[in-house]
Every structure is written in C-alpha cells, then in structure tokens.
Design goal:
2 copies of one chain form a homodimer. Chain A is α+β, with helices and mostly antiparallel strands. Chain A has helices spanning 3-12, 36-44, 55-62, 82-94, 149-158, 175-180, 188-191, 226-230, 264-278, 290-299, 325-342, 354-365, 367-374, 389-403, 435-439, 442-455, 471-477, 480-493, and strands at residues 22-23, 50-52, 69-70, 75-78, 98-102, 120-124, 131-135, 140-144, 161-162, 198-205, 210-213, 238-246, 248-249, 253-261, 282-289, 313-321, 348-350, 381-383, 407-414, 419-426.
C-alpha cells in the first residue's frame, strides 16, 4: 500500500460542496516521509491483533454512518489488548502518525473517521470486547471499550441489574464510543448521560502509557477529574480502552403513556407534575410534534395513533417501577387523571401490554427513519434550559419560517433533558426532489437555529458531540477563554497533536 | 504591615512535630520583594470589596477548622463580585503572589489556609453570597460561591424543591468550598457527590479572566469537561465564583430506621435488599459499629438505643417518599419485615415522628463529637468497592490490632457509597491522657490502613480531599502517569503556580 498515492487518490474522488460525501481533511503541514510498505510491516510487528490494509477491508471503517465523510488511513489496526493499543500508539508517536480511534462507527458528527491525508492509523477497538467482570453487590460492570452497548445491557440483566444507557444505535455502538462522545439517549432524565454512568476508566495516553483508573468507587477525591476529561473528548486526548460502569436495580414493571398536549408549555407543566409525583420512577419524557408523528404514521404502515383526539403536540411518558405492574399502572393513571382534570392533556392512552409499550415507543423511535424516507432534512441536536423550551420553539420556528417559508419544522426530542432534535424538512414551496435547493439552506438555517440556541443559554450539540460537523461552529460560539483552556489541555496531554487529528478543536 | 516579618514571625511560633498546630508551609524559592505597606495600598485599590490586614481580623481565616494548620497571609481579600476576584487575581499575578481561596473554612485537610510564608493573599468568598436566580421548571438554582449550603437548601425548599447536598458543616460551609472539594455527605447514595449536583460554573481563571460556564443544561457536548476539572481541584486551577446547581422534587415524607445487623456482610445484604425494593427512595444507608454507638450513648446523655436486642453493628436507613407518610412507613416496614424473616436483622425500629427521625439521625451525626469528647483519635476517610467493605474491615482491623493492640477501632460511615470513617481511638493498653504516645502512632496506622485501602482498589480520601493532609500520601499511591497528567494540567491552566500554592500536588 502506498500511503501517499492512496491519500491523494481518495482526496480527489466524489467530493462535492455542502453535503453528501465530503472531504474531512484539514491542512496537514507535517514534514515527514514514510515508505509505505516498510511502514506497514513495521506497524504489523508493533502489536499482536489484526491489521487491515486492503481497500476492500478498510473501506467500511473509513466512511461514517451518515455517509457524509469518507477518509483515508495508512491501515486499520485492530488491537486485541490494552498492550496492543500501547504498541500502536507508540509506533504512531515515533513516526508522527495520527491515531483515529473508532468504536461502532455510529457517530453522527464524523468524529470517528480519519481525514483524507491517509497519514493516520485508524485504531478500531472492535476486537477489545470482553466483559472483564460484573460485581452485583457493588453495582458495577467492567468492560472493554469495544463492547457493544446492547451486550452490556444484556450482561447486566443476566446479573439482575440494569445498565440504563439506551439509544437507537445500541446494537452496534460501543461503550468506548459512548463514553468518548458522552452519549445521551432516552433515559437521561433519570440516569444522566454516559458520563454519569461511569466510575472509572482505563486509558492509553497520547504518550503511549496505560493509566489504570478502573476504580469502582462512588467517592474518590484524590486528584483532578481525569476520568471526566477523557469522557466526551472524542479520542483527542487518549484512547479509552476499558471502563467501570454503574448498574442499577432492574425494574419489575414498565409502562408508557402517549398523551396529547395543547402546547409545549402544557407539556412542560405535565413534566413538572410527573416529576413531583413520580420522582425517579419517571424514566423518559419525550416531546413529539404532530408533524413528526404524521411522518411515522405515513411511512410505517402498521403504526397508529393510540388516542382519538388529535393534538398539535404529544408526549411519551415512561415509568419504571420496582414494585409491580399494578403499582406502575396506578401511578401512571393517577398522573394522567390529574393532568386530564386540569385540562393540560385532552386525551391520553396507557400501554396495556409489552406489545403496546413497544408500539408507543416505536412512534417516537421511528421518527428519524420516517424523516429520511420523506427526503433530505437539516438536523439540529440542541439543548436549552427546560423552562425555556416553549419560548425557544415559538421564537425560532417563527424566525426560520420567516426567512425560509419553503421549509417546515419537524421537532421532537427529550423534553425532560431540554434536548430537542430540532429538524427542518422541505415544505410545499420547494420543488419535490430538488435536494440541492433545499440543502443549500443548511448553512443559513443552522445559523438561525444555533444563534437562537446561544441566545437562550443553550448548547449547539447536546448529545452528538463535535467531530467535524460542529467543530468550527462550536469554537466560534465559545468564549475565547474557554477555547484557550481547551487548547492548553490538548497541548498538555497530547503535545504532538496526534490523537484524532483535525477533530473537535479547529487547528 | 511588613509582610516579611509577619511571615517569619508566624513561621516561628507554636510549631510542633506530628500533630497540633503545625507548619503548612512548603519551600518557597520565589525571588521577589514587595514593600509591605505599598503593596497593601496597591491591593486595596485593585478591587472594591473589603481588605483585612490587622492580625486580629485576619487570624480566624488563617487557622483551619481542626486547628491543625495555622498559616500567614499578606492580607485577607473579601471580594464583592466576580470582577473583584478578577482584580485580586490579576494583582497577584503581576506580582507573583499566591492566591488561597477560602469558603466557610470548614475543610478537614488544611486546603483552605495559606502556608506560613505570608506571601499569599487569602481570598475569602464569604461576601459573594447572593442567590442569583431560581428556576423551578428547569430544576436549577444559580448561586455565588460564598453562599452557605444551608441557605441554598432553604431557598430551594421555599421554591418547593430539594437541594440534596447535606453534611455536618452545612450551617457554615459554602457552595464554593463544597464544589472545590467535591463534598459528599449522607445523601450520596441517591444524589451523588457535589460534582453530580452541579450543571455549570463561573470561574476566574489563573490568568485573571472570567469563564462564564453558568449553563443550566442537562446535556451539552461541546468541549472538554472543564466544569468537572475545576470541581474537586481545591482552588489549584482557578477560583469558582458561582455555580448552577440541580434541584429535585421535595419529598413529602421521610422515615428512618435503626436496625441491628449481625455483621458488615449482613449489612451489605440488607443494602442490596433495600436498593432492589426502594430504588431511589433509599436516600441514606449508614453503617455504625456498636463501639461508635456506645460513645454517643456515653457522651450524649439524652440519647438512647431504640432497639432492645444489642448487635455488634447497626445500620441507619433513610427513605424519602413523594407519596405520603403512610406509603413511606409501609415501604420501610415491608423492607424490615423481609430482613427480619431472613435473619439478617435481629431487631429494628422505625421512626414514628419527626422527633424520632431526628433522634435516630443524632445517633449517627454525633459520633464525631463523641469521639472528640472521648479523646484524641486517628481518622481515615476511605472508600473501597461496596462489595469489599466486609473483607476490608475484617482484614484491616486485624492488621491494626495485631500491630497496635493498645488501640481500638471506631468504624462508621456511608456504607451505601463504600465510604468509611475508619477511625482509631486509644484502647485500654494506653495510659489515659497520654495523647503524645497515642498520636505517635498516627503515621504507622495511616500506613497500614491506606496500604490496605489501595490493595482493595480503594481511595485514601473519599470525601475530604487532599489539601495538605493527604497531598504527599496521595501522590505516593498514584501511578506516575496519573501524577504526570495532573502536573501537566496544573502547568497548562496555572503556569505560574499561584493558585492555592503548596496544596494538592507535592512540589
């Protein structure tokens, strides 16, 4: 494999501006030369796992999940052990070669694919997928970074425990990726983000050393919080190779309700009522606009709306109970009765079986796919203080519709966390199928939405991270003092700038 | 005020080795001179709050809560605003003067008093004590660093919300100190440490800039986790000036039970049962040895044991309920019935009133004072994985008793967090009142206990932090790669080494 020619070859193919598979590269001014074949042989000798070099083998690792960024790499290195990761990182370090860590490659911001220079090694943690131990009395599980999330959930359940992190990609995404992006999902209202579910880490640092921080402790105040620095750093400070995760009691019963609400403000009042009555039995509280729901009803033929009275907004409420089905149902019905009485909720349905529970959830979970089936869309993964959600939606909808009346809003998300998937689809004013005309609006609409987010004290990336997609935008919205501290930390822990180069922070 | 002579004057007085008021200074090799009076005048002009320079005014700020460390300072600066803090930090930075931040000065490891050089400014946040805002719908409160914890609790309660951080010093300690030491307390099993209760910070950096990170967001993935880096850093990276804290629904009912258990292993089984049945209604689970309880019964005349059958160990269980007193009592009684049936618990009592609830808690909360009344003691604030607590106690008790049979163990703590206050008192083998003979054992006993902690995968400072007391010990037990990363971060964010000099990390 000739690294140089692969890089330029890949760099020239299929790139187009704005959208589609685009170039994730950044300027590379490093002055070095590696003889391709000799370098590969030398890397092969540096660790004992697998090394992929053939284009047909490496291709799946070099294209992101959303097929927006295709990169190139010298090779795909698949370590079997933490010592293997050390071998790879040290090899790269000696040669000034970038290291791009990858888990399940399900990220949505391009953080897990290399740039197009072909001068990085893609380090896939997929083979480091052992469950190292389960300690039910300590309520912890210790797993390697390449463990698929669903396997961690299942292993916990076998031990009579819950690992609550739950998101659409759970059959493919890995714990290392979940932690590196501080993944969110649908249970954050009760259990927090991935960060809150982690007690300790094992990390291979940018200097190629192993930091064994795999402590299963609830309290430890003996130094700077390195754990939380590596979590959410998207591989730019070091490679997470294993983690101690928190477990919880397995709920005995779960029940969901779908309720119509008259407005986002009414949804917020229902949320407050639910929190005060259910406390931490409230394990999800999702907001869905009728337009978002209509797309699911249209594109998923088996689906149906379980309430009779139509509303402009709906919420999906989930309750998890340690007592019994009966107790769970009573608590949910009491909540909804109170809400119906006050007029907050015109109509609501409670799931009467596991099947119905799944059907209700499918109405929420199928929105993304329904949106894709409908055509292109412009996505925002934003958060604002929960109390400001109604004003944010009202004002920002109006701003976008005033500037771009040819579009329509598809809004849904985790109201209990103040996190909206605030998406925009083509409206009747755009010629059907003219994707380019619509996608040309991405930049201007991003700007309106994100300016509003910042005005409302929010975040332009609530749970998807920065990667390439939000790297420059994020830095632009941040205070210079914060960017300076981030750069100082990057410089302190990765002075050669080799960990996931070109991501997260602008050069 | 002549800085130089104050420093040497203070440095020469009342120091004795090992214990008592000792010298917290570290070698100071900085080569600079400040003319005392001119410097004070110049500092007075750098901000608008109060400046204390007279020894009778500054003295209370220069001696720690446990009266173990007395330091000296050029002056005590009491800013009124974040801009004042900027003024003080910049003034110090220009002159290479250290800044020692202090909240309520209730820390237990000497972190909030300066060394004896007299070359630092003590920065008291006491006057920055405003509640900036309460947002019940977002479940957040924004407060300045000098707010006393109890006032935050009370303000939250007035808004119908709970701020759950709860610890013995809550009438005096401040939120800034709680965050800088990542305080724990009795509700960690349900709500986490101070870190988990904070959504955002305002910080004055070591470079004298304001970082406004006061976001009230549940999800924000747009950069390195600076918040959690400043939390628990004990003022060595910058000054926390304000914070956004999480609020929770206010419980409707609380009930406590005191239960005898046959062993720490039985206590652990009861904990598992309680977690699986009560989930997050379980808000405290404390372990108390009969020797610890006996000291309270002896030194607090009004106190009495509410169960008839004596045990060698007891647990205090607290349940918080959002439903009703009746629901809370039933849940607690069901738990204890199940435990009595299995033989885990020979005898138990449930609080039947608020008074009794307080009496039960007093048995736990008065242990420290009872221990002081009994004489000197050697303290350890340690944590190990919860599942290993029984083995830790058995093995470490045996080791200490074998090496020092003239002592006795006073063990209690937060079993639900794996955190023990693992203390040692003089036993019958030591001449009564011979404190020096007993205190000479502190080093050797610390070593036995902490070596055991590390062997069990634990932490030598679970909730009290490092300060001076555990600074060198902690660094000795850490892996070199972790200490190197801590030093790199310190260097990155405080390159001049002026933030709380001499604490946390050995020079």
């Amino acid at each position: 494999m000739d690294t140089g020619s692969t890089a330029s070859g890949a760099g020239g193919a299929g790139v187009r501006g704005g959208r589609g598979v685009s170039d994730a590269s950044t300027a590379d001014t490093t002055d070095y030369r590696l003889d391709g074949q000799a370098a590969i042989e030398s890397l092969r000798g540096a660790f004992s796992g697998r090394l992929l070099t053939e284009p047909q083998d490496t291709a799946p690792y070099l294209l992101d999940y959303r097929k927006r960024w295709r990169g190139a790499a010298m090779a795909v290195a698949m370590p079997d052990s933490t010592e293997d990761v050390v071998g790879i990182v040290r090899w790269c370090r000696q040669r000034q070669v970038g290291v791009v860590p990858q888990g399940g490659n399900t990220g949505l911001t391009g953080g897990s694919v290399p740039d197009r220079s072909g001068r990085s090694v893609l380090l896939s943690l997929a083979r480091m997928n052992r469950i190292r131990s389960v300690d039910p009395l300590n309520n912890t599980i210790t797993v390697e970074a390449g463990c698929v999330l669903q396997r961690v959930q299942e292993t916990a359940a076998e031990a009579g425990r819950l690992f609550p992190l739950s998101l659409a990609a759970q059959g493919t995404c890995t714990i290392g990726g979940n932690l590196s992006t501080n993944a969110g999902g649908v249970q954050v209202i009760r259990f927090g983000n991935a960060r809150e579910l982690c007690l300790g880490l094992e990390v291979v640092t940018a200097t190629g050393e192993i930091w064994d921080g795999l402590k299963g402790l609830r309290k430890d105040n003996t130094g700077y919080d390195l754990r939380d620095l590596f979590i959410g750093a998207e591989g730019t400070l070091g490679i997470i190779t294993a983690a101690v995760l928190k477990l919880f009691p397995l709920p005995v019963a779960k029940v969901a309700a779908l309720a119509g609400v008259t407005s986002p403000q009414a949804a917020l009042q229902l949320l407050e009522l639910a929190q005060n009555r259910l406390g931490s039995s409230l394990t999800a509280f999702e907001l869905i606009s009728s337009d978002a729901l209509a797309l699911v009803l249209k594109h998923f033929p088996g689906s149906r709306l379980p309430v009779e009275t139509p509303s402009t907004w709906y919420v999906l409420v989930e309750l998890s109970d340690l007592d019994s089905d009966q107790h769970a149902n009573e608590a949910m019905e009491n909540l909804l009765s109170a809400a119906l009485e006050t007029g907050l909720v015109p109509d609501a349905a409670v799931s009467a079986s596991i099947d119905q529970f799944r059907q209700f959830w499918a109405l929420r979970e199928n929105i993304s796919e329904a949106q894709s089936a409908e055509g292109k869309n412009i996505k925002h993964d934003i958060s604002v203080p929960i109390s400001r959600i109604p004003d944010f939606i009202e004002q920002t909808d109006a701003e976008i519709q005033a500037a771009h009346p040819e579009t329509r809003m598809i809004v849904f998300g985790h109201l209990g966390d103040g996190n909206l998937h605030y998406n925009v689809s083509p409206g009747p004013g755009l010629p059907p199928g003219d994707d380019d005309a619509f996608l040309a609006l991405e930049g201007p609409i991003n700007r309106i939405a994100h300016d509003a987010v910042v005005r409302f004290g929010g975040s332009i990336s609530a749970e998807h991270g920065l990667g390439i997609l939000r790297r420059d935008e994020s830095a632009r919205y941040k205070q210079p003092v914060e960017v300076a501290m981030m750069r100082a930390i990057k410089q302190a822990l990765d002075p050669q700038g080799l960990m996931n180069p070109g991501k997260y922070l602008p050069d």
